[in-house]
Specification:
Elements: H1 2-28, H2 37-40, E1 51-52, H3 69-77, H4 84-91, H5 97-103, E2 107-108, H6 118-121, H7 129-137, H8 144-155, H9 157-166
Parallel strand pairs: 1-2
Helix pairs in contact: 8-9
Length: about 170
Protein backbone atom coordinates (compact mmCIF):
# COMPACT_ATOMS: atom_id res chain seq x y z
CA UNK A 1 0.00 0.00 0.00
CA UNK A 2 2.83 2.38 0.80
CA UNK A 3 4.14 1.90 -2.74
CA UNK A 4 0.81 3.04 -4.22
CA UNK A 5 1.14 6.40 -2.45
CA UNK A 6 4.32 7.16 -4.38
CA UNK A 7 2.83 6.45 -7.84
CA UNK A 8 1.06 9.85 -8.15
CA UNK A 9 4.28 11.55 -7.02
CA UNK A 10 6.20 9.58 -9.62
CA UNK A 11 3.75 10.63 -12.37
CA UNK A 12 3.96 14.24 -11.24
CA UNK A 13 7.77 14.12 -11.34
CA UNK A 14 7.71 12.62 -14.85
CA UNK A 15 5.22 15.25 -16.06
CA UNK A 16 7.31 18.11 -14.64
CA UNK A 17 10.47 16.70 -16.21
CA UNK A 18 8.74 16.49 -19.59
CA UNK A 19 7.52 20.09 -19.34
CA UNK A 20 11.05 21.27 -18.59
CA UNK A 21 12.55 19.32 -21.51
CA UNK A 22 9.87 20.65 -23.90
CA UNK A 23 10.63 24.19 -22.76
CA UNK A 24 14.38 23.64 -23.18
CA UNK A 25 13.97 22.20 -26.67
CA UNK A 26 11.87 25.20 -27.70
CA UNK A 27 14.62 27.51 -26.48
CA UNK A 28 17.34 25.66 -28.38
CA UNK A 29 15.39 24.95 -31.56
CA UNK A 30 16.68 26.67 -34.68
CA UNK A 31 15.08 30.05 -35.03
CA UNK A 32 14.94 32.75 -37.63
CA UNK A 33 18.32 34.37 -38.22
CA UNK A 34 18.97 37.24 -35.87
CA UNK A 35 18.36 40.55 -37.55
CA UNK A 36 20.47 43.62 -36.93
CA UNK A 37 18.40 46.31 -35.17
CA UNK A 38 19.03 48.67 -38.08
CA UNK A 39 17.60 46.12 -40.53
CA UNK A 40 14.43 45.83 -38.45
CA UNK A 41 14.02 49.59 -38.80
CA UNK A 42 14.38 49.33 -42.58
CA UNK A 43 17.97 50.48 -42.52
CA UNK A 44 20.84 49.08 -44.52
CA UNK A 45 23.33 46.85 -42.62
CA UNK A 46 27.07 47.29 -43.01
CA UNK A 47 28.12 44.81 -45.68
CA UNK A 48 30.63 44.42 -48.46
CA UNK A 49 27.86 45.18 -50.94
CA UNK A 50 27.59 48.93 -50.90
CA UNK A 51 25.54 51.42 -52.88
CA UNK A 52 27.20 52.91 -55.95
CA UNK A 53 27.11 56.69 -55.47
CA UNK A 54 26.87 57.25 -59.22
CA UNK A 55 24.05 54.87 -60.15
CA UNK A 56 21.91 54.17 -57.07
CA UNK A 57 18.43 55.70 -57.18
CA UNK A 58 18.18 58.64 -54.77
CA UNK A 59 15.38 56.97 -52.79
CA UNK A 60 17.62 53.99 -52.02
CA UNK A 61 20.11 56.26 -50.22
CA UNK A 62 17.42 56.64 -47.55
CA UNK A 63 18.35 53.10 -46.40
CA UNK A 64 21.75 54.41 -45.24
CA UNK A 65 21.62 55.11 -41.48
CA UNK A 66 21.46 58.83 -40.80
CA UNK A 67 20.55 59.78 -44.36
CA UNK A 68 17.33 61.70 -44.74
CA UNK A 69 15.75 63.36 -47.74
CA UNK A 70 18.16 66.29 -47.66
CA UNK A 71 21.34 64.18 -47.60
CA UNK A 72 19.99 61.78 -50.22
CA UNK A 73 19.45 64.85 -52.41
CA UNK A 74 23.03 66.02 -51.70
CA UNK A 75 24.43 62.58 -52.61
CA UNK A 76 22.56 62.86 -55.93
CA UNK A 77 23.38 66.51 -56.61
CA UNK A 78 27.15 66.04 -56.90
CA UNK A 79 27.06 63.07 -59.30
CA UNK A 80 29.06 61.72 -60.97
CA UNK A 81 31.76 61.27 -58.35
CA UNK A 82 35.21 60.45 -59.68
CA UNK A 83 36.80 59.87 -56.27
CA UNK A 84 35.88 59.19 -52.67
CA UNK A 85 37.88 62.31 -51.78
CA UNK A 86 35.45 64.36 -53.87
CA UNK A 87 32.50 62.75 -52.03
CA UNK A 88 34.10 63.54 -48.67
CA UNK A 89 34.78 67.15 -49.66
CA UNK A 90 31.22 67.74 -50.88
CA UNK A 91 29.54 66.07 -47.90
CA UNK A 92 31.80 67.98 -45.48
CA UNK A 93 29.72 71.03 -46.37
CA UNK A 94 26.81 69.42 -44.53
CA UNK A 95 28.06 66.90 -41.96
CA UNK A 96 31.16 66.12 -39.91
CA UNK A 97 33.95 63.67 -40.78
CA UNK A 98 32.61 60.92 -38.49
CA UNK A 99 29.23 61.01 -40.21
CA UNK A 100 30.88 60.82 -43.63
CA UNK A 101 32.92 57.82 -42.47
CA UNK A 102 29.68 56.16 -41.33
CA UNK A 103 28.15 56.82 -44.77
CA UNK A 104 31.18 55.17 -46.38
CA UNK A 105 30.24 51.91 -44.63
CA UNK A 106 27.28 51.87 -47.03
CA UNK A 107 28.32 53.71 -50.20
CA UNK A 108 31.25 53.76 -52.63
CA UNK A 109 32.61 55.58 -55.65
CA UNK A 110 33.28 53.12 -58.48
CA UNK A 111 36.96 52.41 -59.05
CA UNK A 112 38.45 53.10 -62.45
CA UNK A 113 41.46 50.75 -62.50
CA UNK A 114 43.68 53.20 -64.40
CA UNK A 115 42.34 56.57 -63.20
CA UNK A 116 41.11 56.44 -59.58
CA UNK A 117 43.24 57.95 -56.84
CA UNK A 118 44.67 55.80 -54.05
CA UNK A 119 41.99 56.89 -51.56
CA UNK A 120 39.28 55.65 -53.91
CA UNK A 121 41.11 52.36 -54.55
CA UNK A 122 41.49 51.98 -50.75
CA UNK A 123 37.69 51.54 -50.51
CA UNK A 124 38.32 47.86 -51.23
CA UNK A 125 37.71 46.01 -47.97
CA UNK A 126 40.91 44.62 -46.49
CA UNK A 127 43.14 46.92 -48.51
CA UNK A 128 45.26 49.47 -46.65
CA UNK A 129 46.14 52.85 -48.16
CA UNK A 130 49.73 51.68 -48.75
CA UNK A 131 48.40 48.74 -50.78
CA UNK A 132 46.16 51.08 -52.75
CA UNK A 133 49.16 53.30 -53.46
CA UNK A 134 51.07 50.25 -54.71
CA UNK A 135 48.15 49.39 -57.02
CA UNK A 136 48.14 52.94 -58.40
CA UNK A 137 51.93 52.83 -58.91
CA UNK A 138 51.65 49.57 -60.89
CA UNK A 139 49.47 51.16 -63.62
CA UNK A 140 48.45 50.80 -66.34
CA UNK A 141 46.37 47.64 -66.17
CA UNK A 142 45.36 45.99 -69.44
CA UNK A 143 42.13 44.64 -67.91
CA UNK A 144 40.12 44.34 -64.73
CA UNK A 145 41.44 40.80 -64.37
CA UNK A 146 45.02 42.16 -64.33
CA UNK A 147 43.99 44.66 -61.65
CA UNK A 148 42.29 41.93 -59.59
CA UNK A 149 45.40 39.75 -59.87
CA UNK A 150 47.49 42.62 -58.47
CA UNK A 151 44.98 43.17 -55.64
CA UNK A 152 45.29 39.46 -54.81
CA UNK A 153 49.07 39.74 -54.79
CA UNK A 154 49.02 42.79 -52.50
CA UNK A 155 46.08 42.14 -50.18
CA UNK A 156 44.93 38.55 -50.64
CA UNK A 157 42.03 36.73 -52.21
CA UNK A 158 39.28 38.12 -50.02
CA UNK A 159 40.13 41.69 -51.02
CA UNK A 160 40.11 40.72 -54.68
CA UNK A 161 36.58 39.37 -54.28
CA UNK A 162 35.51 42.65 -52.69
CA UNK A 163 37.34 44.63 -55.39
CA UNK A 164 35.06 43.17 -58.06
CA UNK A 165 32.10 44.78 -56.28
CA UNK A 166 33.57 48.29 -56.56
CA UNK A 167 34.95 48.34 -60.11
CA UNK A 168 33.55 50.67 -62.73
CA UNK A 169 32.51 48.96 -65.94
CA UNK A 170 35.16 48.46 -68.62
Amino acid sequence: MKTLRFIPILFLAIALTRCQSDKASKNTAPSEPAMDASVEQGKRPVTAEKLNLNTTPTEEFLTVPGVGDRMAHEFDEYRPYVSIVEFRREMAKYVDEQTIMAYEDHVYVPIDINESDAETVAQILGLELAGAEALVAARPYASQDDFIAKVTEIAGGISSQFARLYLAGE
